[in-house]
Automatic annotation (TrEMBL), chain A:
Keywords: Membrane, Transmembrane, Transmembrane helix. The chain crosses the membrane at residues 176-195. This is UPF0603 protein YdjH. The lineage of its organism: Bacteria, Bacillati, Bacillota, Bacilli, Bacillales. It comes from Cerasibacillus quisquiliarum. It comes from the Bacteria. Residues 39-152 form the TPM domain. Residues 234-243, 252-263 have a biased composition (Low complexity). Residues 226-263 are annotated as: Disordered.
Automatic annotation (TrEMBL), chain B:
It comes from the Bacteria. Gene3D superfamilies: RNA polymerase ii, chain L. It comes from Cerasibacillus quisquiliarum. This is TFIIB-type domain-containing protein.
Amino acid sequence: MIRFSPKPTIIFILLFFLFIPLTTTFAENKGFIEEKQKIYDDADLLSTEEIAKLESIANKYGKKRDTNLIILTTNDTDGKGFKKYTQDFYDEHLDGPNAAILTIDMGDREVYIVGFYKGEDYLDFDRIDLILDKVTPKLADGDYYGAMDSFLSLSYKYLNIKPGINPDFILFKFEAQIIISLVLAGVIVGLMLYHSGGKVTTTERTYMDGHRSRILNKRDVYLRKTVTRRRKPNNNSGGNSSTRGGGGVTSGGHSHSGGSRSF
Amino acid sequence: MVIHYKCPSCGSDMAFDADSGKLSCHSCGRQDDIETFSDEYITRTFTEDDAKEYHCENCGAVILTDTDTAATSCSFCGAGVVIADRLSGVLAPVKVIPFSITKEQAEVAFKKWCKNGLLTPKGFMSANRIKKITGLYVPFWLYDLNSEVEVHAEGRKVRTYSRGDYIYTETKYYDVYRNMDLYYKKVPVDASKKMNDELMDKLEPYHYKDLKTFKMPYLAGYIAEKYNFDDKELFPRVRQKVRKFIDSYIGSTIVGYTSVSYRDKRIDMKKDNSYYVLLPVWMVYYDYDKQEHTFAMNGQTGKVVGRPPISYGKVAAWFSGIAGTTFLSLKFIQWIVGAGL
């Protein structure tokens, strides 16, 4: 008789499905374009050396993630608003490939992040919100270089984490992993030690005479109820709220994700 | 052995009446069938020819054997100074569970148990240093108990829901009442001062289907310890033991609440009956690392209890093994979903 073990097959199938999203993403030939300029500092926020540094970082990270990491700064969006300004920029300069764009509108003091294609899948509103959490305070402090650097490194990080997973999920934190491992090992070994001398295997049922034991009387009477209410915790309170609905479709027909904040 | 039949009505001694073929009471005239007469009212005491008693001069243990078995050393402290004494008039056990595991089987079972020890040192696992195995009948009291339980409690059901900008927490309060009549049968408590209570509790359960009416030949080749506490002295212990059972039973009848707080719990526990029984235990004395370790094995089921030596190396190995594997698994999951390392 041929014995067939299902385990390896199941694992193989699972792994296969896990890797499909990765392979399909790379299969689309809308990736990184090395020769394209990445930093467009129209608002003159950076020095020449800083621009050169950011260019090289954007190219290094972008190449690895197959996504164009673009930074735009402007003093004035020609009356279009930062959203339309960014969309038009994409249609004009890129028109197709994967991209993540950071737009800093110094005129309206707004910062806007959008993702196209792979960028749209990987940088959804929640992740953009996380990036804005880091970027906006630096912009408010006038640390433009630091803000841009954060954008590049966080985009680089998030573009490698499967869409839909919270990058700040507690189990992905090194400290949490260490603590969970140690606590679990401690509990298991503690139980082993505790039980090494033999376990109590009797329960409350062992000696109970089920034939004669009876419940003579029971009552569960509803008395009263109390209701307390509290306001829902509001993440978008105060000055650091991101505007939802930053996503949309460009005139050229490219759909994108997005989120903005004022600083 | 002398058997006393106590009259269930007036407490006087009953005698066998040859005319009616029944046990009859001279005081009140009650008659009972001898075959169906309840064990509860039968008292057996040893006579001089039944049993011998040994006192250990070293640790004070008192052990009983049949007149043919000679104890040469104390089975508790190992001292060779035991003084034999005739005994008569001492209360004899009502029931006994005979050994169903022989000495050879006990040795095999013990060795197997040693090998299964995940945290015990390597040398201990080979289990070739058994110094002595003694079959010992340990005195226990078995209690039949009736408890009337009355419980008043407050149950709370908590529900949260959100409507509009608010999160609402709704708590419903219930008045919970339970009145129960609970019976527990043959709850064992060891009556030996020498035996560690915790150890003896872990030896349970014994299966009572093998419970036999005590006869002297069951003792042949084994020794029995004389009980140190009578059923009245041990009642607080059995009460405490059953109290835990009752508490968890009460909990199991109050379900469906988020939380329950007890306002009043009245447990009225009465002893219906108590039996003096002997339960079989193999005592295993084992030398390891110049230290003697004592283990007890249930002589009916083979369950072993007792603190084995612990290898700190193995504890460390298990700890780091589990911690390491967990950490790597978490990292692996993180890598699979592509959340970086």
